[in-house]
Design goal:
single chain; 31% helix; binds zinc ion; alpha+beta; ten-stranded mixed sheet; 37 strands; 1012 residues; globular
């Protein structure tokens, strides 16, 4: 059967190629025949008898054939387009068939097409997603099904909702609902903007699903409701079409890269499923919670010719094994059916792992449905190109029918591959509709049973957390994920401890227990597993500096508690009636920085030490606001802001006598390059969300502004990859004769003007002129903040002394969470924090401070010089005992605040900068290798143990603060935000609290002398 199908396909192709321009195909018998033949599919696939033959759209079909580079990239599903008197084809509305070279479709035209389709057929309905994109575009959801299904959507949504919450129904009712219900298959297009094919393909697929009368398509309509997200990253799509059109109009010229996709991030829009910082993720989540789709299928393009997702493992350990099997079943169905049709290069397994839940399709995987994706071969536009396939053309156990090593590839090929395979998947789901719906019910049921089967019973966020806003925010994230969160009515006593009344309880006997569990639990990634595809650790409690308790004792499930309706919210207040002023504890929440900026005209001091008022303790960094000398309406304004921000202020009659300094309202600049804006976008998203003002400037502004100090107090160089030299060079400017590379609005690029920044010429980085300007900025009192690897800018260009970056030899620490300890709690950067903090760190940089090392050589690392322990008696954690003498156990090495070991201090005295000008380690990775890892992957930890995470390097009158950890990563690291805000707010007092430096009353170098 299969061979004959393959032959038929090819003969149809040959016939068409020969006859395309010669004879009318309007009622081409070969095609009509093709459309009429029973569809091949898995043995179980249903093929209802067909009642009528269907003519094909001749011109459109010719276009398909002409633009497919080889018949092997066609199947009988896509080698023609059925004609319709009533329903418009994409060509009728757009003016060109899908897959036409040089044609990419803007979102507004995609939408125009879907709305025409909706008008023409009762099988299509168009909805708008709840939120607009960050740049104001609509996101659409298109529903395609048979007339009755589309007319009765509410009924089918109700069925899947009930199956998704087995607490509401019993097995008998479930069985009935499964019989009545329909599977919902959700295809989601172009989350990644340079991956251009899926928005085109989906329009044609919608038409085909609505119009075609083959038994194969009829079977899909019968049992499946298809949801289509035409384009997910709507902003990036329109900029990508701009860019493509610009390239076509400027052939031979160097073109810009797609610098901005969405307003904030680029490729990372597909790493937002955990934290939901982007409108597109929230839209997908709310659509999921409305429809409970059986499958969410995300369409990507990066791998030849069609990679269908399963993954190498390690697979996410919190998923029900049933869904892992479903991934495999669907993938192997597609591979088998495509292979039978003679299509090369459809494969699975390799490429990605299946571990982290940050991908968008975890909207489904994390909620008892199936999340999956394709990677097809895209050309990054709509050109037909000769392509060379690398390693992925090798035959391997998981790729017995590999892609060809060389191929002429077209947009149409890409469309054919995507559409054929996804239709096969839809048909398979139709044939197995009851099985998939039953699995959904079963997975939901097993999620509810989790509390008592595998545990834990619940996660608890105990009341009284020093960071109540962050705790509430984490609760709200869980609620956005569809999880239920309760509040303890009174104290709960369990074997896991006592939890006070008001504690948040996330029960594991609810449908989305697995999502909550995977977000809150810790991760262990074995370094012997395949190289991770992305982050290996993501535990949100530690990252947000919020205490979470894994409660195993099922007794907690019987404790009295109340479901939280609506959002969790902390209401702040101004307590007391004192007239002297106000005190606000610094608890290392972002709300503290927000308050400072909201009251920017108010004089606020920061305490330089801990203090007590009555029985109440206040952290270093706490705000002291004197009534005298401040605006008369201070009380009313503080009440308003404190209430909104969830801040507890205290009105007192007597202000504490503690060392303090005036807290600035710094002018902050956030710098981006013209090479990449991906990771700095996560900074903008937080600054915008928190309402913290900043100027967004490019490295060209650094280059062109001789006096940066006049304009800015703090310059943050957002994370960007590459060496210091490549960052400073930027997009290379090779010659003055070469045309500029613009990123701006023009007739041909109308959407680029919406970008957060634009330029007439992207070429040239900040250059050495920029480096010199930066150095002047710092030396005249500015604060320069580097994130991750771009610490190399001030180090390699000699702006800082005493700091170096060490290359890792053994370390494997890919996107993990590590314990860190404040090495200097008197530094303003440490204000509000406890002794320890968990931070996100991804492999580099290993910053080295002090000694001859940092000051020009190899460096000291007094901690963890050796991995493990010497071979000898006992186990890993036992001390080594040389024989024939009493045991000697050395006391643990004491970190010195400037990184210089005591025994070298005297001998280096003449060469070192004065004490107050040496780098100051503020936060350090745990010195004990065994206590370093919180979550994720770690090997060779001795190289990281004890290394600085945050250092403050005085330079002239200013400072460079370097972060080895990334304090603003993917809207997950809320616990680290205050490190950055503290540095900024205290930019002109960073040397406060240094050991062995002149103290208050004596103005110090680098300070304005307004210490009190
Ligand atoms: Zn992609």
């Amino acid at each position: 059967m299969n061979r004959s199908i393959s032959c038929r396909t090819k003969s149809a192709f040959t016939h068409l190629v020969l006859s395309a321009l010669l004879i009318s195909l309007c009622a081409n018998p070969a095609l009509a025949q093709a459309a009429k033949k029973p569809a091949p599919a898995s043995p179980k696939a249903q093929a209802p008898p067909q009642t009528q033959s269907q003519p094909v759209d001749k011109e459109y079909t010719e276009s398909i054939i002409k633009n497919t580079t080889d018949k092997m990239f066609l199947t009988e599903f896509v080698d023609h387009l059925p004609a319709s008197d009533k329903v418009p084809t994409p060509a009728k509305v757009l003016g060109y068939p899908v897959g036409t070279p040089n044609k990419l479709t803007y979102t507004k035209d995609q939408y125009r097409y879907y709305r025409e389709l909706e008008k023409a057929t009762p099988r299509v309905k168009v909805f708008t997603a709840p939120e607009k994109s960050e740049l104001g575009r609509e996101q659409l959801l298109v529903v395609v099904g048979d007339e009755a299904a589309v007319a009765n959507l509410a009924k089918y949504k109700e069925i899947t909702a009930k199956l998704g919450d087995p607490r509401r129904i019993n097995d008998e009712e479930a069985k009935k609902l499964i019989g009545e219900g329909k599977a919902i298959y959700w295809a989601s297009g172009s989350i990644h903007s340079p991956e251009t094919g899926s928005p085109e393909m989906l329009m044609e697929m919608a038409y085909r699903l609505a119009v075609e009368e083959t038994p194969f398509i009829q079977a899909i309509r019968k049992n499946v409701i298809v949801l289509i997200t035409p384009t997910l990253e709507v902003d990036g799509r329109d900029m990508m079409v701009d860019l493509y059109n610009w390239r076509k109009a400027n052939e031979g010229k160097r073109a810009p890269s797609l610098l901005y996709w969405g307003k904030y991030v680029a490729h990372d829009n597909n790493r937002d499923s955990m934290a939901m910082a982007l409108a597109l993720t929230r839209n997908q989540m709310s659509t999921f919670l409305e429809y409970h789709p059986t499958i969410l299928h995300d369409l990507h393009e990066s791998v030849p010719f069609l990679y269908t997702s399963t993954g190498t493992g390690p697979y996410n350990a919190w998923l029900d094994p049933i869904v892992i099997n479903e991934w495999q079943a669907l993938a192997y169905h597609e591979i088998e059916e495509m292979t039978k049709r003679g299509v090369p290069g459809v494969w699975t397994h390799g490429f990605y792992d299946g571990w982290a839940p940050n991908y968008m399709f975890y909207v489904a995987n994390g909620h008892n449905s199936i999340g999956r994706f394709y990677e097809t071969f895209g050309n990054g536009g709509a050109d037909t190109q000769d392509r060379v396939v690398g390693q992925q053309s090798n035959r391997d156990w998981f790729r017995p029918n590999p892609p060809l090593p060389r191929v002429k590839w077209s947009l149409r090929n890409n469309v054919n591959m995507q559409q054929s395979a996804i239709l096969l998947a839809m048909n398979y789901v139709s044939a197995n509709k009851d099985r998939f719906l039953n699995n959904f019910y079963l997975k939901s049921k097993r999620s509810v049973a989790k509390a008592k089967t595998e545990g834990p019973a619940a996660w608890v966020l105990p009341a009284g957390d020093p960071r109540p806003n962050e705790a509430a925010d984490l609760v709200n994230l869980l609620k956005m994920q569809g999880c239920e969160v309760h509040k303890a009515d009174k104290e709960i006593e369990t074997k896991d401890g006592k939890f006070p009344a008001g504690s948040y309880v996330v029960r594991m006997d609810q449908p989305y227990s697995r999502m909550a569990d995977m977000l809150l639990d810790t991760q262990y990634y074995n370094v012997n597993d395949p190289r991770p595809y992305d982050d290996t650790g993501w535990t949100l409690g530690p990252l947000r500096n919020v205490k979470t308790v894994r409660a195993k004792d099922v007794a907690i499930l019987n404790a009295p508690m109340t479901l939280i309706n609506g959002m969790a919210k902390v209401t702040g207040s101004v307590a007391g009636s004192g007239k002297a002023g106000y005190i606000i504890n610094h608890n290392a929440e972002s709300a503290i920085a927000q308050l400072r900026f909201r009251l920017k005209d108010v004089k606020i001091n920061a305490a330089e030490d801990t203090f007590k008022v009555g029985e109440r303790s206040f952290n270093a960094g706490s705000f002291i606001i004197k009534a005298e000398g401040n605006p008369a309406d201070l009380d009313a304004r503080l009440k308003k802001e404190a209430t909104e921000l969830g801040v507890a202020a205290h009105a007192v009659d007597k202000l504490p006598e503690v060392a303090q300094h005036a807290l600035s309202v710094p002018r902050i600049a956030l710098v981006h390059t013209w090479t990449n804006t991906q990771n700095e976008g996560w900074y903008r998203i937080e600054f915008d969300r928190l309402g913290i003002p900043y100027s967004y400037i490019s490295d060209h502004v650094i280059r062109d502004t001789a006096n940066l100090r006049e304009k800015y107090d703090v310059i943050i160089w957002g994370p960007v990859g590459g060496s210091a030299q490549s960052i400073v060079r930027g997009v290379p400017k090779r010659s003055d004769n070469e045309a500029p590379i613009p990123w701006q609005k023009s007739d041909i690029t109308p959407n680029m003007g919406q970008s957060p920044d634009t330029t007439a010429d992207m070429r040239g980085g900040m250059g050495v002129t920029g480096v010199a300007n930066l150095q002047r900025f710092i030396e005249s009192g500015g604060l320069f903040v580097t994130i991750g690897g771009n610490a190399s800018i001030p180090i390699d260009f000699g702006i800082t002394e005493g700091v170096s970056i060490q290359a890792a030899r053994q370390l494997q620490a890919r996107g993990s969470i590590f314990n860190a300890t404040f090495a200097d709690r008197k530094s303003p950067i440490a204000y509000g924090y406890d002794e320890k903090l968990a931070v996100y760190f991804n492999q580099a940089p290993l910053i080295q401070v002090g000694g001859v090392g940092g000051f020009g050589g190899g460096g000291f690392n007094p901690f963890g010089q050796q991995q493990g322990r010497p071979s000898g008696r006992g186990g890993l954690n036992d001390p080594d005992i040389p024989q024939g003498r009493p045991p000697f156990i050395a006391p643990p090495a004491q970190p010195s605040p400037d990184g210089i070991p005591e025994e070298f201090r005297t001998q280096l005295a003449g060469q070192l900068p004065s004490a107050e000008m040496r780098p100051r380690i503020v936060l350090r990775f745990a010195t004990d290798e065994k206590n370093l890892l919180v979550s994720g992957m770690l090997a060779g930890g001795s190289e990281l143990a004890g290394k600085p995470a945050v250092i403050d390097v005085p330079v002239g009158k200013g400072h460079v603060v370097m972060f080895a950890n990334n304090p603003m990563w993917r809207h997950q690291t809320h616990g680290s935000f205050s490190l950055l805000f503290n540095a900024a707010l205290n930019y002109d007092h960073l040397s406060v609290g240094r050991a062995a430096t002149p103290r208050r009353g004596q103005p110090q170098a680098g300070q304005n002398g307004d210490d009190q």
